[in-house]
């Protein structure tokens, strides 16, 4: 990332939305302009907020934000190493490092690190949630359930497309209870903290829309509520066809972007999750090592499939942009 050659935003609406909230928080009045923009999450803006308060010019602020992106990428690399070592303790350390470096340096991550669209934060939050999920599955304690619920809400708050992760966490909590791996109080703790977190986020989001975006005509365009009406259109055959076509387009994109490796991962996760379900049907002992791997695989598989579906529904009205057919930005952080 050539920070010295960066001078400003490249994705106007996205980046301006994040910087705009940070500007309002730091005392600058950008409300007149932001009233013409759709809502963008305030979570990444909290990182940009202290940068906006620095006594430097706009270019320097932008470069500081890119430096923070680089730091978040490094932290993501460390967390991915921790996840790999916990899942595959027999693999040599150097081999794990090489794999995790390749994942961290995925081309989309390098590109996103050169702008302030918040994608690197989303990547970091996902890997953090994945690590906590692994720890929870292996040791289903109340603390891990609490942390997993909080991180699920934080992922959702950082970008509402991550409602897929929120739903997946709820499923994992249910699976752990069903398999008698987690006690009822642990399950309820995870559910309760997730519910409270969603309510708190919704209150903050409404405040941001009202006072930062001045409740403008476009302010709720990116809100989940604005997308739910599209679900009713799924009953129309032509709409369902469009959604399926976009789902396939995203699967195609992820395959080409990952040199087909994503397909191997999907099959491996499906097999591991299937074996876990089969063991439950056959009432085999739950403490088998395959049980842990199966639940973690289910987390990854559901996260990806739900993200693909949600992204496809979001772009049901693509206009004349053919890129929406295979738009991968909302799913490739899971690849």
Can I get a quick summary?
The chain is an all-alpha fold and about 325 residues long.
Q: Please report which band the strand proportion falls in: under 5%, 5-15%, 15-25%, 25-35%, 35-45% or over 45%.
A: under 5%
State mean pLDDT (0 to 100 scale): 88
Specify the biggest β-sheet: none
Low-confidence stretches: none
The tally of strands reads 0
Can you describe this structure?
With 335 residues, the protein is an all-alpha fold. The protein has 14 helices and no strands. Helix 12 packs across helix 14 (289-314). The model has no long low-confidence stretch (mean pLDDT 88).
Top keywords for this entry?
mainly alpha; 14 helices; globular
Layout of helices and strands, plus pairs?
Elements: H1 12-25, H2 31-34, H3 43-52, H4 58-87, H5 93-104, H6 107-112, H7 119-138, H8 142-158, H9 163-178, H10 184-211, H11 224-228, H12 237-257, H13 261-281, H14 289-314
Helix pairs in contact: 1-3, 3-4, 4-5, 4-7, 7-8, 7-14, 8-9, 8-10, 9-10, 9-14, 12-14, 13-14
């Amino acid at each position: 990332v050539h920070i010295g050659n960066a001078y400003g935003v490249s994705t106007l609406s996205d980046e301006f939305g994040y910087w705009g909230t940070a500007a309002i928080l730091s005392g600058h009045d950008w409300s007149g302009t932001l009233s013409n923009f759709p809502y963008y999450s305030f979570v990444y803006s909290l990182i940009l907020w202290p940068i906006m308060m620095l006594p430097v010019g706009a270019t320097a602020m932008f470069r500081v934000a890119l430096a923070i992106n680089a730091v978040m990428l490094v932290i993501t690399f460390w967390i991915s190493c921790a996840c790999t070592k916990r899942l595959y303790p027999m693999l040599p350390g150097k081999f794990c490092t090489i794999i995790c470096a390749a994942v961290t340096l995925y081309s989309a991550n390098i590109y996103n690190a050169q702008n302030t669209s918040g994608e690197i934060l989303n990547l970091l939050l996902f890997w953090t949630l994945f690590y906590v999920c692994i720890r929870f599955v292996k040791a289903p304690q109340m603390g891990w359930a609490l942390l997993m619920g909080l991180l699920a809400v934080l992922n959702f708050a950082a970008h509402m497309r991550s409602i897929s992760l929120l739903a997946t966490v709820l499923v994992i909590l249910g699976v752990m209870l069903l398999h008698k791996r987690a006690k009822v109080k642990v399950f309820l703790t995870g559910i309760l903290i997730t519910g409270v977190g969603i309510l708190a986020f919704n209150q903050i989001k409404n405040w941001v829309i009202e006072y930062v975006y001045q409740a403008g005509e476009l302010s709720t365009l990116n809100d989940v509520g604005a997308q739910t009406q599209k679900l009713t259109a799924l009953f129309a055959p032509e709409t369902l066809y469009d959604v399926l076509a976009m789902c396939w387009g995203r699967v195609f994109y992820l395959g080409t972007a990952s040199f087909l490796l994503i397909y191997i991962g999907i099959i491996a996760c499906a097999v591991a999750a299937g074996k876990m379900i089969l063991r439950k049907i056959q009432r085999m002992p739950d403490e088998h090592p395959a049980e842990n791997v199966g639940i973690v695989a289910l987390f990854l598989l559901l996260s990806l499939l739900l993200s693909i579906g949600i992204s496809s529904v979001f772009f049901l009205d693509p206009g004349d942009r053919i890129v929406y057919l295979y738009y991968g930005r909302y799913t490739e952080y899971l690849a």
